[in-house]
């Protein structure tokens, strides 16, 4: 009996021994009919999809009772509310009137959701391939006001999704043990293929905005940005523009091809700063319906969020599985000339993710190395103001003296109004059950 972990090898037999050995083997097989076989025990997690029709999904938009945060993605601030996307499922609504005591008041079901932005009382959110506009004038009673089909991901000639089409809205997760056994029937070089007793393959060892409009604030990892009466979204290679002059009736304007491996978008005044695995792009919004590229910079292939102020752009680069074999560092560019940004300084980091700016303070989520806060008065000589360890951090929004930080274990809020006494004031836990 062989187990899954054993190695299977071929033996070289000298010619003069082949005949005697063959006789012995034939005799042995005739007596016992012994076959080379295997037994394998594998521990796996099974995900069984739960589906509804598209019509049912659209009719099910309401504020449900609060649910625990399990796999949060993006964070977004709208007035006194903190919106947190639950990856592929919807948006948590947090009453953050008192940041020291945030209250989870409900959950909006939006299957396939990852990103969002707001203007006034309109919430713009992706639902699989659709853009939903949800009225959140009363956050406790949201309702769909508009749907634009077939924009995520965008491709020409896309057809509307039928209302009776099945949409995955959840998964039933179950840990289980799978035991397989059978005969080894094929050896192909270093690859060994096994078949179970029923003849099926078992496994293989192969390897800011217009006057009168109030916009929310997203983090540096966002793919949605709202300003100048427009909603801008980025995908893997393009920038899509929607006219949101009429809050509840966005209109698709166009999609521009801007590059490859596009990841993030950050609005600042009259410009968009777009991060990709290959570099940073700066776009001018003099004509918001047709943004113009002012410049681009390239760097080694790494994950790349960006934030900016009046004089500089700050870019974090990190390596990892999906970020290739890049570097882990902070890069600072002079944007005195938006058409020709100049790299000024690099600072080594551990595994930097999102970042945020507030005055002369730069907040960097350095992965498992926690949250780092720097004084950037002199960009050529950053001063570390505070290093908060013990957190695995992802993104940060510093606003009105409160830094909202998303991490592996929770959403943390820090009061930084006194930079010499930065303190944790609340935590929203993430459930691992």
TrEMBL record:
PROSITE patterns: PROKAR_LIPOPROTEIN (PS51257). Pfam families: LVIVD. This is LVIVD repeat-containing protein.
